[in-house]
Design a protein that fits this description.
The structure is a homodimer of 158-residue chains. By secondary structure, the first copy, chain A, is mostly helical. Chain A has 5 helices and no strands. Chain A has a single domain, classed as Multidrug-efflux Transporter Regulator, Chain: A, Domain 2. At the A-B interface, α3, α4 and α5 of A face α3, α4 and α5 of B. Chain B binds a DNA duplex (30 and 30 nucleotides) through α2.
DNA sequence: CGCTTGCCTGGAGTGCACTCCAAGGTCATA
DNA sequence: TATGACCTTGGAGTGCACTCCAGGCAAGCG
């Protein structure tokens, strides 16, 4: 199933007016009724996982075809993108569901959402710092094994 | 149980001669026979986890007191430190066990160990880049909720 | 029409990394 | 010497995030 994934579709009709990142969708708005297997191809998630996300409320109910099959939209794809980012921060799925609920509750939850994102942001900064620390340790050890492979590293499993 | 955690003990007798990072141990070498609960306090791991690490071969057998209780050494602490770093990279425990086995097998495994660390290093770099990407997305969204809290973000759960 | 392929559902199963339990031995302090 | 905190073991249990299964519906094609 070859799709036009990667097509640059300028989504001028969307509502994210300001500081919008250049989003690209496989098909322009209006023709965005993707089957589950197309979304699998776009996102790398499995169909199981997509259905499960819907079941637990991480996505609101997806449009259906007249026979009941899921038809995903461009904004579903955007949401999945964002969920993927949150997943990379190590945020538990339950917290993502909480965020999704806040979004569904409407504008009154702006403050809560902002706080949640800011706390996530702090977590990300911490994690980056930890990883850079780890990188330094790895570089040091790789140095031992590479250059001075002879001199014993002070390493043992105990 | 207050300990002298954080004490700067110059471990001049250790074998990591070159490019050694300034390691600090709660007690100097020679008096380093920590109980499991001391190690819990130092590392933040649970006693359960420490015993489990030993069982699965992530640590080689720990010294025991005359009655069979575990007594951890400074180099055990160093190893746990390193394991903590590897854990932060998202490396599966099974891979860490593999690395531990390589260390136990001796110098003949230098090449393998180096390759493992280098592949881990690449993973870490990738992860840092992903997180920085995520950070940009978060900052953008936080901007929406903060400054122009009124203008609708192009966000919905679908 | 039959065949294949794709999709549907609720519920059960999987793998990972712990996490806890029961039953008992040990150690420090009063 | 007694009390209570700490330590031991093998094996079972937990929580998370999927992952799969059985049984069935629907569409496209020779």
């Amino acid at each position: 199933m070859q799709t036009t994934a990667g097509t640059i579709a300028p989504n001028a009709t969307r509502t994210d007016i300001c500081s919008a990142p250049p989003r690209r969708h496989p098909r322009p708005d209006g023709q965005d009724r993707y089957t589950i297997s197309e979304v699998v191809a776009f996102t790398g998630l499995t169909a199981h996982t997509l259905r499960w996300y819907e079941r637990i409320g991480l996505m609101s109910h997806i449009d259906r075809s007249h026979t009941g099959q899921r038809r995903y939209s461009n904004s579903d794809l955007d949401w999945l993108d964002f969920v993927g980012k949150l997943r990379m921060t190590g945020m538990p799925v339950a917290d993502m569901v909480r965020y999704a609920e806040l979004v569904r509750e409407g504008e009154s939850t702006y403050q809560d959402r902002r706080e949640l994102l800011e706390s996530t942001r702090r977590d990300v900064l911490t994690r980056i710092a930890e990883l850079q620390d780890t990188l330094a340790v790895l570089d040091r050890k790789i140095g031992f094994y590479g250059d001075a492979g002879r001199s014993r590293e002070g390493e043992s499993t105990r």
